[in-house]
Design a protein that fits this description.
Helices cover about 45% and strands about 15% of the residues. The protein has about 190 residues and is of the alpha/beta class. The chain has one domain: Rossmann fold (3-Layer(aba) Sandwich), CATH 3.40.50. The protein has a six-stranded parallel sheet with strand order 3-2-1-4-5-6, with helices on both faces. Helix 3 packs parallel to helix 4 and helix 4 runs parallel beside helix 5. About 40% of the residues are buried. The C terminus is likely disordered.
């Protein structure tokens, strides 16, 4: 039996990079996977690459109405979720002295607000024993020039993991954070 046989999973930011690789692996391990992405063309291409046991839902993690629509779709099509990989995120370079409010808001809205509300809105669909995986980054512990805003968002993600483990222990829901290093993808440098 495969590790995720019969499981239903969600991978946010599943159109490229770590998200797409994870979604492909989940399907290979027997899961049915929902993936999200902001751009429909890239979402459709990712669904085609994955090939089976996948549904793409256009969604911006920082938009709460999009999240409501995402979870309504999952509830209608599968009824529950066993695994969440909260992976949607991004950032850009801006050294101290050049950080704009727009840069700050965009980075925190996706990486922190979007991640928090993705997990919170999924809670009614998670059975006892479900698994939540948060994508943090080595940037949360290692200084990087001109990357302080992004790094701060990933430190928040690590903090969420530590605290949500306690919040969800009665439901036996596991919460883990992964902290990969630099993974060059088209989404790494740009928000487009």
């Amino acid at each position: 039996m495969k590790k995720l046989e019969g499981k239903v999973s969600l991978v946010t930011g599943g159109t490229s990079g770590i998200g797409l690789a994870t979604a492909k692996r989940f399907v290979a391990e027997g899961a049915y996977v929902f993936i999200t992405g902001r751009r429909q063309t890239e979402l459709d291409a990712a669904v085609e690459v994955i090939g089976k046991n996948v549904t793409g839902v256009q969604s911006d993690a920082s938009n709460l109405a999009d999240l409501d629509r995402l979870f309504a779709t999952i509830k209608q099509e599968q009824g529950h979720l066993d695994v969440i990989f909260a992976n949607a995120g991004g950032g850009g370079l801006a050294p101290l002295g050049e950080i704009t409010e727009e840069h700050f808001d965009k980075t925190f809205n996706t990486n922190v607000k979007g991640l928090l509300f993705t997990v919170q809105k999924a809670l009614p669909l998670l059975p006892e024993g479900a698994s939540i995986i948060l994508n943090a980054s080595t940037a949360s512990t290692v200084g990087t020039p001109a990357f302080s805003v992004y790094s701060a968002t990933k430190a928040a993600v690590r903090s969420f993991a530590r605290n949500w483990t306690l919040d969800l222990k009665e439901r036996k829901i596991r919460v883990n954070a992964v902290s990969p290093g630099v993974v060059p993808t088209t989404a790494y440098i740009t928000w487009d």
